[in-house]
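User: I'm new to structure prediction. If I give you an amino acid sequence, what do you actually give back? Let's try with this one:
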Amino acid sequence: MQNYDHIYSKERIDSFISKYKDQVNIDPTKQIKCGIINIDEINIAVDLIQKGYLVAFPTETVYGLGANALNPDAILSIFSTKRRPLTDPLIVHVHSTDNIYTDKPPIVDILAKHFWPGPFTIVLKSTRLETTSLLSANTGSIGIRIPNNYIALQLLQLSNLPIAAPSANLFTHISPTSPIHVFNDFYDQLVHIIDGPRCQEGIESTIVKPLNNQLQILRLGSLAKDKLNSVIQQIPELQHFQIIYERKIVKEEDLEEKPELKRKGSSMEAPGQLLKHYSANINTYLLTFEQQGQYKEPFEIIEEQTIIVDFGNYIRKQLPNSKARFIQLSETCDAKEAMYNLYDTLRWAEIQPNANIILLFDFERIALLETTNDEYLITIADKTFRSASGLRILYEQENKFSLLI
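Assistant: Good question. You get back a string of structure tokens that encode the predicted 3D arrangement of the chain. For your 405 residues, that looks like this:
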């Protein structure tokens, strides 16, 4: 490997930390091993990818932890670095439909014309890659997409490789929307982080699987279900297709007892189906105001140690005397804005001094008539549900809360 000592240098790391000083969250007793790549050093990132190293790069959705999808050792390093089980498949990024490395039914070119580059992943059978088993969690099908980000496309084009890239965070942690989020998770690992911009969508791609005359949504994402359906209905060749979505909940214990490099449990068809996902490092719950028949047990909340993630100031109005710290996903009840802010807000909340609990606006149980861009509500409801591992806290009266079980 060429001499790239400067990307690991104290000067480079100190400059990066100074740039993001209010967001840094690291253990000072641990050695910093990562490298920082400036956006004008894309050739370094290309060389590292080609040589089998990990490069974290921006896409329009979230930052990806990228490796050469043709290199088994590089792929395995993604799983070991993220502490991700092999039963959780990876998405492969490409720059052209001419090199998607999977079987290519006619529907692919039609969908690509309308949704690529963009936050849209298609799961397809793959018989062309020797690494298919690793990439696909042994299912034989790989998620493929062309990202809509100039840095990601440069990396793909110049490396001339398919790049496997899940989100650049530790397994089940909050997806990263900026380079500092990646740094906070991997500063002590041999990960090379492109210091790029904040991601423009702020949430993962939508994953679909064509099956007969259906497009099954396997993961909700930043391409809204209703928008996907609207476009499909305007394509003559696809008007007979139905958009099918059913929430899938996979518990971590169903995959493996521990997220190590062993195949113990059943595999998932796509990432983003775990019950615990997009989760902060402090306890997180959905805050609701209706019991809806569930059993409950008393739950103590110290308001001074609580962060409330609100939407349109709804919770603040219900709890006007609360001593908790409030932050709004959208002051104006804009669901797309809330989706864009969600991961960044959770990352902020988990590092606030003395904070030990996050309460999230419950998008599934609280409906606000004034919501705009409401086609995104189903997506943000799913992400917040998984951020809280499906757990809900019921507010009953002042200073009285219960855990719904």
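You can read the tokens as a compact description of the fold. Here is one thing that stands out. The radius of gyration is 21 Å.
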